[in-house]
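Objective 1b: paired records.
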Amino acid sequence: MERSISLYKDIITSPHTLIAGTTGSGKSNVMNGIIREIMLDYTPEEAQMYLFDPKVIELEDYRDTQYCVRYETEFDGMIEALDELIEIMNERYHSMSGQHIKEYQGTRIYLIFDELADALTAPPLKTIGMIKSKLQVLLQKGRASRISVIAASQNPNREIVSGKLTINFTNRLGLRCVDESESKAVVKRKGCELLPKYGKALYLSPDGFSEVKIPLTPNNWELIQRYRKVRPVPVATAQKPVFQPKQNDTAASLIALFGLGLMLFGLLGGIL
């Protein structure tokens, strides 16, 4: 049964969300819609984004916004960013413990991972293992520290979107899939294979299971320009100032030269 919800608002206030569907099912529209919702609902002081973009095309437009802390396209950079997020998470837990509170109240952090399948298949096995283990830590413990993972995949098979790594995604958005097996891997039941190519999805969340409409995301260019980072103005190469005497200095110099001329004239007259 279809229910009316603000889909993207629900996603950005949930712990972790997995988005999956076959190529051409509208994943890019959804990812841009989620980022748009973050930028509309929160200021850069209230929300920050770590963007992982292995294909270097989906999230590049947002790398220079004030919301973006890190934009990574290489797997080594992603591992460094995951380490940084885990360190932030641990610091937040330490702060929470000192204040005797169970949920962090400060800035939200979103790890937005455009193509999870690339990171779990393309790198060497050692790199895949490091990404999996560090991502798993964030999925297991990030919730209370206000660190959310939003990951997407165009390869929704069981090897990618099931198992220990993805079991901690509290929310799952299934776009059009090729067959029942992919649908079950994404939302744990069949149905995504019957969806139209665009416009609808199956959404599994702690509130239940439903069919949802996927709104068409407007162009985000205005928001991107509004929150673009201010680049420092380059400092011009230092040059030695050219001495230019002031007008009164010039007059004084002329008077001094005139007096010297008179003195020389007098000396010459005495000699002659």
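Objective 1b, second protein:
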Amino acid sequence: MTVLVRRSLSDIRTPGEMLLDTINLGNGRMKVKQYGFGELKIDSDIYVQDIEIARRQIKKRKKKKSKPYRERFGHTPLSIDENIPWSCKTLVVGRGMCKSLPVMNEVISEAKRRGVTLIMVNTEQALQYINKKDTNLILHLTC
């Protein structure tokens, strides 16, 4: 699995040229260094696409299966069709700067069915949960 990441703030390339990596952070604590519209810096890595953080691994959010719902919501939502990282006690969804990422009712129902606490907040607030035990995150980095 790969995630789009820039290795430094000065590493300016076109999206097709950016470095692709899977980042495994082991047991160390993640440090959010900067968050702005469309860009998140964790430790020394900069992410420019929506990401998932599950079991201390950062991966690109694969939202292709949710795209058919885009017209209905005006934005590609988080749908049950995605591979949501349910292996946790708490799932935090960072819905973007203005909480524009829709979360479909089926996701809420599935969280209840699995006994997973679902927290839906703006991405800046979601980052407060980044080092919480048994917590996975889905982070929308833009609107």
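The CA atoms of residues 105 and 112 lie 11 Å apart. The longest strand covers residues 32-36.
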